[in-house]
Automatic annotation (TrEMBL):
Gene that produces this protein: Il22ra2
GO cellular component, as recorded: extracellular region; plasma membrane
PANTHER family (UniProt xref): INTERFERON/INTERLEUKIN RECEPTOR, INTERLEUKIN-22 RECEPTOR SUBUNIT ALPHA-2
Family statement drawn from the similarity comment of this UniProt entry: Belongs to the type II cytokine receptor family.
CDD domains attached to this UniProt entry: FN3 (cd00063)
Purpose of the protein: Receptor for IL22. Binds to IL22, prevents interaction with the functional IL-22R complex and blocks the activity of IL22 (in vitro). May play an important role as an IL22 antagonist in the regulation of inflammatory responses.
Protein name stated in the entry: Interleukin-22 receptor subunit alpha-2
UniProt organism field: Himantopus himantopus
Amino acid sequence: VLENPDLQDSIKPQQVEFRSLNFNSTLHWQPGRAREARDTVYFVQYKVYGQSTWQNKDDCWGIQNHVCDLTNETSDIQEPYYGRVKAASAGVYSDWSLSCRFTPWRETVIGPPMVTVVHSNKSIILKLQAPRSPYKRKRGSKIPMTNYYDLLYQVFIINNLLDEQHRDLVYEGKDKVIKIEDLRPGVSYCIVAKTYVPMLDRSSAYSSRQCTVL
């Protein structure tokens, strides 16, 4: 049996970090070195930078998971937050492990837009929809990420005849409906899009591809 100070140290959570996509923000951690400690449970607290008191996250108090959803607790997206986690096993509690400072507005990963191919003749008409945040308007609809950032859409066309990896940027801007003209009939075209945040100089991943034959 491990001595208590050793146990205390060996169950301490490692690599505590926030991960965030479109303001869906979760705290993640790795178990301590004593991986054989099967009955380990975890306790999560959070606070705004500069506050002296930590708040318990009730849903993540004595849990066995290694992840805790703090989306609602970090909804003031300009504020910097900290999270911390401690472990308990066999009646022994570890010290707290602290995350780095996390500012949702600056650090959340923005997802790609939803792309719908509406029509094709000699042209393709696309509808783009910004990713949505988890936060809701009074009427209950989710607030789009365009409310929080000056977002641009980047639209790329892949002409499958040529080369799978060759993507031509055919549009960059804020329009939600885009027409791509002068395309060749009988050719298969695929469209992918990204969101781009000029102020942070950050792009999303590519959207899933939408293909059409004119």
